[in-house]
Amino acid sequence: xKLLKNFKEQKLPRLLxxxxxxxxxxxxxxxxxxxxxxxxxxxxxxxxxFIIYYVLISIANKIYAKKEELISLTPVVMAGxxxxxxxxxxxxxxxxxxxxxxxxxxxxxxxxxxxxxxGYFGAFVLAMLLPRFGYPSIGLWKSDLKLLILxxxxxxxxVYRAKRxxxxxSYVGGFVSISILAAIFFRIIGFKFNGVxxxxxxxxxxxxxxxxxxxxxxxxxxxxxxxxxxIKEQIIFGALIGIIxxxxxxxxxxxxxxxxxxxxxxxxxxxxxxxxQTLPVTG
Length: 283
Description:
Strands 1-4 form a two-stranded antiparallel ribbon. Helix 2 (41-64) packs across helix 3 (74-85) and helix 3 (74-85) crosses helix 5 (118-129). The protein is 68% helix and 3% strand. Residues 1-8 and 279-283 have low confidence and may be disordered. It has a domain at 147-283. By secondary structure, the protein is mainly alpha-helical.
């Protein structure tokens, strides 16, 4: 019974995520112009990620004198995350992003676990350090309503199973709330955004209704391995990402969602380290 409970709480959400990744990639390759990665990249990236993972985790185990499992779903999940969030036309770019992701998984961690979503971190670092090799796939997914609904429905089910529903609701709520309040305030004071007298109140909330944003909401910030487990922390975590995301978007800083996620994730990890160090000793 204990093994079954552990499978339902930890492995099942990851397996559902893998299935969703495969479906999105297949649909992207078959039906959506712009998603032009060769399909063989996907399984090849899984194998490459696994080799990199095995080597780097082995090194990390020796450095930290810790026996972390060398057989993991992480390299496979990373392959899907990179395929969905990174646009590159050379397999070496995906492999390098996988290397950055595994590096973060192996070495950027606390006693509570790794800090960032490895695949998303790898895609972001590659895009920032080597933009000519790859960049976030913003706008390369066609915002087809049927695909959006499919990702939202499957993503909602996965997030619900992973008990991370509060993260996505607070992210959307935080982003939409600050967007509407700011739009009203700007109208009152007569602020012009890039020379435009009045930006429609729902303009910025509408930017969340894209395939890229929906994937970010349901498959990045809600990652059960790196997001908070308590409801209170989930609400704060998601809301902060949403608020910072909005501020970066109106400041025309891109990729806003990636930067906001990494900033809040870093802050949350520091908070958990501080909290663990200040807990009273009992017993």
